Every structure is written in C-alpha cells, then in structure tokens.
UniProtKB/TrEMBL annotation:
<feature type="active site" description="Nucleophile">
    <location>
        <position position="332"/>
    </location>
</feature>
<dbReference type="InterPro" id="IPR002586">
    <property type="entry name" value="CobQ/CobB/MinD/ParA_Nub-bd_dom"/>
</dbReference>
<dbReference type="Pfam" id="PF01656">
    <property type="entry name" value="CbiA"/>
</dbReference>
<keyword id="KW-0315">Glutamine amidotransferase</keyword>
<protein>
    <recommendedName>
        <fullName>Cobyric acid synthase</fullName>
    </recommendedName>
</protein>
<keyword id="KW-0169">Cobalamin biosynthesis</keyword>
<dbReference type="InterPro" id="IPR027417">
    <property type="entry name" value="P-loop_NTPase"/>
</dbReference>
<dbReference type="InterPro" id="IPR033949">
    <property type="entry name" value="CobQ_GATase1"/>
</dbReference>
<comment type="similarity">
    <text>Belongs to the CobB/CobQ family. CobQ subfamily.</text>
</comment>
<feature type="domain" description="CobB/CobQ-like glutamine amidotransferase">
    <location>
        <begin position="253"/>
        <end position="449"/>
    </location>
</feature>
<dbReference type="InterPro" id="IPR029062">
    <property type="entry name" value="Class_I_gatase-like"/>
</dbReference>
<dbReference type="GO" id="GO:0015420">
    <property type="term" value="F:ABC-type vitamin B12 transporter activity"/>
</dbReference>
<dbReference type="InterPro" id="IPR047045">
    <property type="entry name" value="CobQ_N"/>
</dbReference>
<comment type="pathway">
    <text>Cofactor biosynthesis; adenosylcobalamin biosynthesis.</text>
</comment>
<feature type="domain" description="CobQ/CobB/MinD/ParA nucleotide binding">
    <location>
        <begin position="5"/>
        <end position="228"/>
    </location>
</feature>
<dbReference type="GO" id="GO:0003824">
    <property type="term" value="F:catalytic activity"/>
</dbReference>
<dbReference type="GO" id="GO:0009236">
    <property type="term" value="P:cobalamin biosynthetic process"/>
</dbReference>
C-alpha cells in the first residue's frame, strides 16, 4: 500500500493545490512513484484523460508535476457549478447529471464506495499519494458525511498537514480556530502546521510560531514564502485572473474576456510566459481598452455568458474592435458564441432556450446542444489558415475537447484532427476562420510548440515591431522549470525530513 500525506487548508485558496504539486515533484525527484488525489473537486477548469474521461485540472497539473499520466481515479468526483446553487456532477470522469446543492449533499454518501475504489487503485500502483482537501475541514455545517477533508483522511489513513494563509492576515486565528473546531480524533490526525505565503523577516514571526505550537501541541512543518513560480491555478480565485498577468517588455496586449462562468482559463497562460506580451482578463467595457488581440474563453453556461456580454456592452465593444481589424479568437464556448446561433432543444444548459439564441455573427457556424457531452483528446494540424494568423497553416495542434453541442459550418475548418484517446481513431474537422476571426473546440490549442509564438509574431508584424527572437521558447520545458523551481523553494522552507517521518511512521489503521 502507498504511503500518504494529506494537505488541508484553513480556507479556500490557502495554497493547498500548489503545495501538493510541489510535494509531488519533490517525491518524484527523490525516486518515488507518486500520484495526486482529490476525492471531490469543485472547479470549472477540467481536463480530459487519454481514455476520454473528465477530471479536475488541478490534479492533472499535479500529475504532470509528479511525472505521471493523469487519470480519472486521481479525482473521482468533479463538481462543475452551473449556477449559484447547483452543479454538474462528474463521477469517474463521466457526468451523471446536474444536481442542486442540497440534493447532492444528501446523495454524496452514495459515492463513498467510488472514492474508496479510486484511492485503492492508486494505492496499489504508486509509492506515495499526495491527497488534497477542499475548502476547510472546520465547516461545521458540512462535516456530516464529509468525503473530502477529515472524512477522506480517515478513509485513506492519511496524516494531515494544515495550511494557513498569512497573506490574508490572521493566520494564527485560522490555524487555532480550525483545529479547535475539530473532533479529538480529527485533531490527532493533524501532524504539522504550514504558514503559507509569508513575506518579510521570519524572525519577527518566530514568537507566534512557538506560541501556536505550544497551544495546539502540533509542530510547525514549515513557513513557505510567497513563491515566485508560474504554475497553472485551479480556479477563478487564482491570481492569474486578477488584472494584468505580465507587463515586462510589453509590446502586445492580449485581452481575455472574464465571463461569470469562465472555464479552462489556463488555456491562455502560455501567453503570460512570453516576453513582449501583456495578458489581461477583463469583465467590463471600461477595462477593455484597445488590445491587439481578443480571446473569448470556454464557458460552463455558454448562452448565459453570451447574454451577459450582450447586456453589459462587451459584445458591442468586441464587434467594434473586430471591425477595426483586431483579431478575435474563440475557444470552445467562445467559439460557439462567435457563430450565428445557439440552440438548446433539450435545455441542457438553459431553461426555455429552445429557439435559437442569436450569436455574435462573426463566424458562419450554428451550434445545437445535444444530450451527450463530447469528451476526447485530439491531435492534428491546422489547415490552410487565412487572415493575420496565416502562418499557423500546417502547424501541429494537440489538446482536448469538453463541450455540449455540435457545430456546423459553411466554410472550411480551422484544423483537421484525429481523436487520440484509447480505442478511437476517428478523423474529424474542427473550428473555422473568417477574416481575422477564428474559433476552435480544442482546449490547449495555444500550448503546442510554435502556436503561441506564431500568433505573437503575427501581432508584432501587424504593429510594425521586430522581435528579438534569439531564445527559442518551449512551453513544456518552461513548465518543467517551474515545477523544479517550486520543489526547490518548498525544500528550503518545509521540514521535509519531518514530513517523511510523518508519512513513514504513522500509527493508524489501514483503509476502511
């Protein structure tokens, strides 16, 4: 059976996902075969495995840090919010439908066997499993039938490291309050405290660390600085969606529309790593400015987000920019919005939107939502592309599709791809282009080597700017450097010897 360590937090966005990813990389570097695990994740960022199954993007990132292939067992339950009180429920990579929060809360106990089976599968295949909790274990209104925090720790026989966020203030109250709201047997499972996102002189913090250790009788496992690493974030609470991501040596400005139900916003993170590019996420016309390139991202509720843009004026502003020859690119739901119409005859995403909803009319496509979700990995190449991005022609593309609906076009496709998941060899056409407007269903389209830089070079050429291309850019190599950098910073700030001792000397029962 695999050794385990669980990362829980005092709140959402305390840094659990990043620390879990860093531990995955450290254990990999130390020669262990390691897997991430999160029993229940709530996020609109998702990933498609080689088998065509859907899982949380955060666990896919952690698997990448661990150097292993992502698999649905690493995230057996994924909740994708459809509104403020309900979510699509995905179990073992397949949607079982939408549920209001109260209905799911009553239903989730039925999923415990699925969680146990997924964990058992990983436990038989890996040396170490890094488990991530969700939110806080001290949500006393949610503790009954918990399957993601202390409930999961008990199922997995996992010692817990509790992470507090000092950047938001009140870290000692966070740690103390969380521990004191737990049951005695739950308190006993917390083997270390981590103060995360620290800035400043640690010697000033030391007296507080000594006091909290004494009051809780739990050792400090580390004080982690506010880390300067570029790792894909889990959801819209992350810093990447707050204003400008990069401004160094800015020559071109790329704007992504931050819709209320934005999904897979990590599709565009590659641009934030390229010099000369400023990447901004905006949700108001007043913040749109005069960008060089506008991107419409994926959305969990395409029609609602299209109507949101229509109501707040962003649609009209984008149409004006496009009329001035500013290129526009849509991914997945953004691609659907750029078309002529969207229909939802089975009310899969909307209530009562049976008749076609008018699209933005920039691409000659029509979309009809069906009952089945497309989930597939694809690989292929761009066709003969026109417009400002004509140099994309013939370049390889790779990624995955997660969408409701089938889209028909009256022009040639943007790409020819082949489904490359296990057992499928279906050739298909994807996306389209008209003028300087482009659309595709492929998440990860910009990540493939050469795609993002070709776009940046085309934008520079349009502005009459010559770029100094003396350094070849490879996004995959860049990500590897970031994982190694994350691991190095964690090694310097965590008591790794103590963490290994916690993992290898735990005295709890085996998985129930």
């Amino acid at each position: 059976m695999a050794k385990t360590i669980m990362i829980q937090g005092t709140m959402s966005n305390a840094g659990k996902s990043l620390i879990a990813a860093g531990l995955c990389r450290i254990f990999k570097q130390d020669g262990y075969r390691v897997a991430p695990f999160k029993s229940q994740n709530m996020a609109l960022n998702s990933y498609i495995t080689e088998e065509g199954l859907e899982m949380g993007r955060a666990q896919a990132v952690q698997a990448e840090a661990a150097g292993v292939k992502p698999e649905a067992a690493m995230n057996p339950i994924l909740l994708k919010p459809t509104n403020d009180i309900g979510s699509q429920v995905i179990v073992n990579g397949i949607s079982i439908g939408n549920m209001p929060a109260r209905e799911y809360f009553a239903y989730k106990k039925n999923l415990v066997p699925e969680v146990k089976r997924a964990f058992q599968k990983l436990s038989e295949e890996y040396d170490i499993i890094v488990i991530e909790g969700a939110g806080s274990p001290a949500e006393i209104n949610l503790k009954q039938d918990d399957i993601v925090n202390m409930g999961m720790a008990k199922m997995a026989d996992a010692p817990v490291l509790l992470v507090g966020d000092i950047d938001r203030g009140g870290v000692f109250a966070q740690l103390y309050g969380t521990v004191m709201l737990l049951e005695p047997d739950e308190k006993a499972m917390i083997k270390g405290l981590i103060v995360n996102k620290f800035r400043g002189d640690k010697t000033i913090l030391d007296p507080g660390l000594e006091m909290i250790e004494k009051q809780l009788s739990i050792p400090i496992a580390g004080v982690v600085p506010y880390m300067d690493v570029d790792i894909e974030e889990e959801d819209s609470l992350g810093n990447h969606l707050a204003g400008t991501v990069r401004t160094e040596r800015t020559a071109m400005e790329i704007v992504v529309i931050r819709m209320p139900r934005i999904s897979n916003f990590t599709d565009f993170q590659v641009f934030s790593t390229i010099p000369w590019v400023s990447l901004r996420y905006v949700d108001r016309v007043s913040d749109l400015g005069n960008p060089d390139f506008v991107i419409l991202p994926g959305s969990k509720s395409t029609v609602q987000d299209l109507l949101w843009m229509r109501e707040n004026g962003l649609e009209a502003a984008i149409l004006k920019l496009q009329a001035k020859d500013v290129p526009v690119f849509g991914i997945c739901g953004g691609f659907q919005m750029l078309g002529e119409s969207i229909s939802d005859p089975f009310q899969m995403e909307t209530d009562g939107a049976v008749l076609p909803v008018r699209g933005m009319g920039l691409l000659p496509v029509r979309t009809v939502f069906g009952k089945e979700k497309t989930r597939t990995r694809v690989a292929g190449s761009c066709t003969s592309v026109g417009g400002i991005f004509e140099d994309l022609s013939g370049l390889d593309v790779e990624g995955y599709e997660i969408h409701m609906g089938e889209t028909t076009r009256s022009v040639p496709p943007l790409t020819y791809v082949m489904e490359c998941q296990s057992g499928s060899h279906l050739a298909k056409m994807d996306g389209c282009q008209r003028g300087n407007v482009y659309g595709t269903y492929i998440h990860g389209f910009f990540d493939k080597e050469g795609i993002a830089m070709t776009i940046v070079e085309a934008l520079a050429k349009k502005k009459g700017i010559t770029l100094d291309l003396d350094v070849e850019f490879n996004y995959q190599e860049y990500k590897e450097e970031q994982y190694n950098r994350l691991a190095a910073q964690l090694r310097a700030s965590l008591d790794m010897e103590g963490i290994y001792e916690i993992m290898f000397t735990k005295a709890m029962s085996s998985v129930k």
